[in-house]
Amino acid sequence: LSQDDPLTNLNTAFDVAEKYLDIPKMLDAEDIVGTARPDEKAIMTYVSSFYHAFSGAQKAETAANRICKVLAVNQENEQLMEDYEKLASDLLEWIRRTIPWLENRAPENTMQAMQQKLEDFRDYRRLHKPPKVQEKCQLEINFNTLQTKLRLSNRPAFMPSEGKMVSDINNAWGGLEQAEKGYEEWLLNEIRRLERLDHLAEKFRQKASIHESWTDGKEAMLQQKDYETATLSEIKALLKKHEAFESDLAAHQDRVEQIAAIAQELNELDYYDSPSVNARCQKICDQWDNLGALTQKRREALERTEKLLETIDQLYLEYAKRAAPFNNWMEGAMEDLQDTFIVHTIEEIQGLTTAHEQFKATLPDADKERQAILGIHNEVSKIVQTYHVNMAGTNPYTTITPQEINGKWEHVRQLVPRRDQALMEEHARQQQNERLRKQFGAQANVIGPWIQTKMEDQLNHLRQYEKSIVNYKPKIDQLEGDHQQIQEALIFDNKHTNYTMEHIRVGWEQLLTTIARTINEVENQILTRDAKGISQEQMNEFRASFNHFDRDHSGTLGPEEFKACLISLGYDIGNDAQGEAEFARIMSIVDPNRLGVVTFQAFIDFMSRETADTDTADQVMASFKILAGDKNYITVDELRRELPPDQAEYCIARMAPYNGRDAVPGALDYMSFSTALYGESDL
To answer: Which residues are in coiled coils (predicted)?
Structure first.
């Protein structure tokens, strides 16, 4: 309505009254507004119509208000009942759906999944449950309010549908609380279990990886056949290496047991990936058992190979110990059987023949030794073939092969009959020579004494001759006096003679020298023969050999002539270094002044020394040691007590002082003195 627009206001009032109050339109609004004084009766009639309309409406409104009030209470109660039923149904439905979720104890496989469950549970506690707690509380409030209103409005108490009582809801809520508590405990236990499982699983993986890394290649290593071509020293090294591996293997036993124990614990804790853990653990255990079996098998193979190689090594060593002397014996035998022998008597060839027969008598035993040596080698071959040993090399103790032994043995067998033939031929030759010797001896035994007698007669004659020459000396002296007078008279020539005094003197001196030399040579020959034990036959042989090699008849021998002479007399002087050294030693004896010639006297002295039983420096030294009471020195008192005075003083004057550790004051060195006596050192 608008205060400024009465026309519209009246039209609106008339229209509403007609439409809603059943008051017919009695006036026009224009008549009222446009008239200064409208029709009072008409207005009063119209107003009374409104009065009557409103008077009946007030009663109806009061009645309606009462009904509405009752109905409103009833409707409100019904709404509360419906709300309770709906709220109770929703809450019970939520509890019904939530309890199975809380009672679900299906474990998750991973910590992440369980932590998600825990997060979901926390969301339930933080987000989902609080509104439901509020709903439950509101439900109880609504129930109590409804019951109070029903009681105040004289209505009967509200009885919810079956199972939707507050007590039913409380019971359901108690079940929810119980399920919630158990679920929380289960979650915490499950998380702890998964933490333990994760730790164990990681520990299992780490230990398994370490073990698998350690075992990588071990089976291939244990299956190697390197011992088949190894030497004994290499086998021993392999055994030590294998012992170290066994110690390492034993040390890893704990790890394998730990791996198995962890796998067992994972199974007991119901680890989700137990099948793969069990498979890996089983593989490790199977591999471990296989490693143990392979380790034992390799040890047995190494020990068996070591034993075989030790046996072979012992056989090799025995073969070498027996093959070396047998090989040397065969080489010596071949050398002896091929040696060119020089013999001069039947006894010498008989000695060689006897020695050869003795040698042949040893051949059966030698052949047995050869068979035994070859048997040792065959034993090695048998072991190699039987046990399939791959030998890495040959016998380390010798280079002598069975083929060499057989070859040399066959050569020895071939040389024996040749030696027999050579000895037989030489024996026949020596028999012929012996006949010649006897023929010569029969005549020489007559001529020798005759020569000896003549030599003594010659010596006597030479001495008489020397005496007559000496007795002729006054005439020489007289001639010297006449020569003195001729010189004083300054006479330089003499047609009565071709001899000068110088000629006479030289001739006289040569005569004296010649007769003295001849007497000395005859005396030395007799002295050598008598004093050094050289028989006349030996002297004749020495003289014949000397004269034979004295090609130029100079009365001396050169080095090569002297060597040939010695060889003809049976000396073994080879052309090697040893032979040259021996010949140089002999030359130093027969030619001490290094003139390059050997006189007959020096030759006789050397041969006498070589053939006679003479004293040596060692023998003299041993004699002095006896006098000294087995000491390395001798004293002046001991020399004077044991030796004649002149010889004792001779030794004292020439012996050097003894400077050994055991020396005493006045000790003398008889060792250097003894060697000096024989020209082996200087006095």
So the answer is: 70-97, 235-269
In one-letter notation, the amino acid at residue 572 is D
Q: What is the pLDDT of residues 77-133, one digit of tens each?
A: 888 888 888 888 888 898 888 888 888 877 777 778 878 887 887 888 888 889 888
Q: Which residue has the tokens 């072979």?
A: 312
Cα–Cα distance list, 272 to 102, 203, 268, 277, 646 (Å): 21, 16, 11, 10, 123
Per CATH, which fold does 11-66 belong to? Actin-binding Protein, T-fimbrin; domain 1 (1.10.418)
Spell out the residues 6+ positions from residue 117 whose beta carbon is closer than 8 angstroms to its own: 108, 187
| Whole-model pTM over 0.70 | no
Question: CATH topology for 217-400?
Answer: Methane Monooxygenase Hydroxylase; Chain G, domain 1 (1.20.58)
> What single-letter DSSP state applies at residue 127?
I
Q: Where are the alpha helices (DSSP H) in 341-497?
A: 346-387, 402-471, 473-488
The pLDDT of 665-675, averaged and rounded, is 88
Q: CA 305 to CA 150: how far, in whole Å?
A: 109
pLDDT, tens digit, for every residue of 419-477?
Answer: 999 989 989 988 888 888 788 768 767 776 676 677 777 778 878 888 888 898 898 89
Task: Report how far residue 628's alpha carbon sits from residue 634's, in angstroms, rounded to the nearest whole number.
Answer: 5
CA 635 vs. chain centroid, Å, equals 63
Of the candidates 210, 216, 281, the one whose C-alpha atom is nearest the C-alpha of residue 252 is 210
